[in-house]
Amino acid sequence: MTIDPSMKKILEFMNSLKLPDFSKISIQELRKMENQNMGQSETKPVYSTTDYYLKHDDSSIKMRFYRIDEKSDGLIMYFHGGGFVFGSVELSDPIAREIANFSKSNVLSVDYRLAPENKFPAAVNDTYESFLWAYSNHQKLGISREKIVIAGDSAGANLAAAAALKLKDNNKQLPAMQVLFYPVLGPDLASESYREFGENHLLTRKYMEFFANSYMKDIQDILNPYFSPLLHPNPEGLPEALIITAEYDPLRDQGESYVSKLHDAGVEATGIRALGLIHGFISYTSISKSAENIVKMVWSSVGSKLQS
Questions:
Q1: Residue 279 designated active-site
Q2: Most buried among 52, 71, 203, 239, using CB within 10 Å?
């Protein structure tokens, strides 16, 4: 399918910038540059917001709770994208508000620790512990323990998938559902989407190598199933998964491979390919009607499950 016109304009603009080699710039400067480009200007109102802090592993992890109304008892835990290196609760505030409004559910956005200062598995541990915190503090949050969805996009989707696996492996309470937007799930050098869209489509081969090298402590980390969920030997018993890929995304095929892997393990999984869209499209709902329609459809569907 032809690329969405709004996505084409974004790619043309980004490719015209001739961004510098990330590996030759300090992480502080990179984040300053990235912070100027991330997020949306439009924000949607919610009933209230409250910041909480998770104390674990000698760290204090900020979590922002978005209450959508006085009655909703469903919760969507959201983990932002950014290659494990970029992003924050503040920058993803518009996305979290959009999730809350489209789903009519409460949202908990988690400020997991970033690489390269905090290598794998720090971010996975933060995701795992934040779910346990939400489950234990359900009365404080005014939610049902049986209605907690774990979700994320890109690197955040990797963390959501890894946390779900870790919860299962440790015989903990599982989320009601996992929602993964264009997840990074494992090593990939030869898939069709990687070969076709690994250049000039926003998320490039070079950027993916930079993010992986920033996140991993050792090359052997790639083989760890919490680093690469696609390599987990037995996903049987995982909660229902909704996996959304983008047609023009190098990560497309690994997301769709994960749907197949879950099916083979008897896990209820639904795959949606967003035709004409690129990696990161949930950040472009204000300028792309196609992106907005997909995002609204997904969160409305998830919200309906939580309200039933």
A1: yes
A2: 203
